[in-house]
C-alpha cells in the first residue's frame, strides 16, 4: 500500500513538472509569434513600378518574409478582382499566373501577352489579421521603331545608303533588330558593301549599303524584336550633281537631278533641273526654254501633275 502511494506521488510530481515545462514552452512560442519582427512583412527591395511592352510577359515580384502558413494573393486594384491565391489562378483570364518556388519568399505575378488595358495598380496581399498588402504599378507600352530622317529618300547612284533605326519606348534592349528590303531580310551575300551595326544598349541599328545602284532602290524596313516596325522608301537615281543629292539621313532640303530625258505634255525635254523639296513634299519642274513651271503635288508621279 505504501509502495502504491509512493508511485502515485511520484507520478503526480512528474506530471506537474512536465505540465509546467510545456506551459513555459507554449508561452515562449506564443510570445515569439506575437513579437512584431516575427510577423509576415514585405521585403521593400523589390521593384514597385514595372514597364512592359505589348506581347512580352510582364513580371511583378512580391517578396514576403516570415510568411508562415499565411496565403499570398494578387488583386487587381481597379476592380478588386482576385487574380491568384497561392499558386492557383482565380480568374478566367488565363494570362494571369502566380509563380512560386517551394521554400522561397518570392511570389511573382506573371501576365502573358500584356495589353495597354492591363496597365494599372496590382496588390500583393497577405492573409494576416488585419490583412497587409503592397502595391505595384504596371505600365504596358507599345514599342515602335523609327528610322531617322524622311520617309522617302533620294540617293545619288554611287553614294552610300545610310539608314539608322531606333527602338522607341522599349523598356529593355531588343534581342535583335532585323533589316528587310521588301519582304526579305537584307542579304549580305547577295552583293558586297552591306553592313549592319546594332548597339543593343542604345537600341539602335545602322544599315549601310556602299556604292548604291538603282537596283538597291526599294522599301527598307527596320524590325526590332517586340517593337512595331518602321519603313523608308529609297530611290537610287542616276545624276550628275552628287553635292546636291540627299545622302542617307542628311537634312538637306533639296535634291537636284540633271535629267534630259523627261518630257511633259508636248513641251519637250526637261533640259534644266528637277528639284525635290523635302520639306513641302512638292516637285517643281522647271523648263528653261519656255519659262513654264509646274507644281506637282504627288512625288510618286512627278510628271502627272497639273500645270500652273
From TrEMBL:
It comes from the Eukaryota. The keyword Membrane applies. Gene3D superfamilies: Immunoglobulins. InterPro entries: Ig-like_dom (IPR007110), Ig-like_dom_sf (IPR036179), Ig-like_fold (IPR013783), Ig_sub (IPR003599), Ig_sub2 (IPR003598), Ig_V-set (IPR013106), Zig-8 (IPR037448). Keywords: Membrane, Transmembrane, Transmembrane helix. One of its GO terms (biological process) is synapse organization. The keyword Transmembrane applies. It holds the Pfam family V-set. Residues 40-127, 130-233 form the Ig-like domain. The chain crosses the membrane at residues 7-25. GO terms for cellular component: neuron projection membrane. SUPFAM superfamilies: Immunoglobulin. This is Ig-like domain-containing protein.
Amino acid at each position: 500500500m505504501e509502495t502504491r502511494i509512493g508511485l502515485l506521488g511520484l507520478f503526480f510530481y512528474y506530471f506537474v513538472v512536465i505540465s509546467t515545462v510545456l506551459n513555459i514552452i507554449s508561452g515562449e512560442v506564443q510570445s515569439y509569434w506575437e513579437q512584431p519582427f516575427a510577423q509576415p512583412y514585405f521585403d521593400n527591395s523589390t521593384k514597385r513600378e514595372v514597364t512592359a511592352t505589348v506581347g512580352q510577359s510582364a513580371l511583378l515580384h512580391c517578396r514576403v518574409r516570415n510568411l508562415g502558413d499565411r496565403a499570398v494573393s494578387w488583386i487587381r486594384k481597379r476592380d478588386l478582382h482576385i487574380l491568384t491565391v497561392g499558386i492557383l489562378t482565380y480568374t478566367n483570364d488565363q494570362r494571369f499566373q502566380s509563380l512560386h518556388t517551394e521554400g522561397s519568399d518570392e511570389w511573382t505575378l506573371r501576365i502573358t501577352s500584356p495589353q495597354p488595358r492591363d496597365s494599372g495598380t496590382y496588390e500583393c496581399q497577405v492573409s494576416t489579421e488585419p490583412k497587409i498588402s503592397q502595391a505595384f504599378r504596371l505600365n504596358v507600352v507599345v514599342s515602335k521603331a523609327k528610322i531617322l530622317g524622311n520617309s522617302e529618300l533620294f540617293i545619288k547612284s554611287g553614294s552610300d545608303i545610310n539608314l539608322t533605326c531606333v527602338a522607341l519606348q522599349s523598356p529593355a534592349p531588343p534581342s535583335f533588330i532585323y533589316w528587310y528590303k521588301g519582304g526579305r531580310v537584307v542579304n549580305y551575300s547577295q552583293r558586297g558593301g552591306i553592313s549592319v551595326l546594332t548597339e543593343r544598349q542604345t537600341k539602335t541599328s545602322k544599315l549601310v549599303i556602299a556604292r548604291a545602284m538603282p537596283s538597291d532602290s526599294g522599301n527598307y524596313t527596320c524590325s526590332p524584336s517586340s517593337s512595331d516596325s518602321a519603313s523608308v522608301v529609297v530611290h537610287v537615281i542616276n545624276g550628275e550633281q552628287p553635292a546636291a543629292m540627299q545622302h542617307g539621313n542628311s537634312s538637306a532640303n533639296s535634291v537636284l537631278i540633271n535629267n534630259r530625258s523627261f518630257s511633259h505634255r508636248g513641251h519637250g525635254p526637261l533640259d534644266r533641273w528637277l528639284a525635290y523639296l523635302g520639306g513641302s513634299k512638292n516637285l517643281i519642274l522647271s523648263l528653261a526654254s519656255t519659262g513654264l513651271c509646274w507644281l506637282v503635288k504627288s512625288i510618286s508621279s512627278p510628271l502627272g501633275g497639273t500645270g500652273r
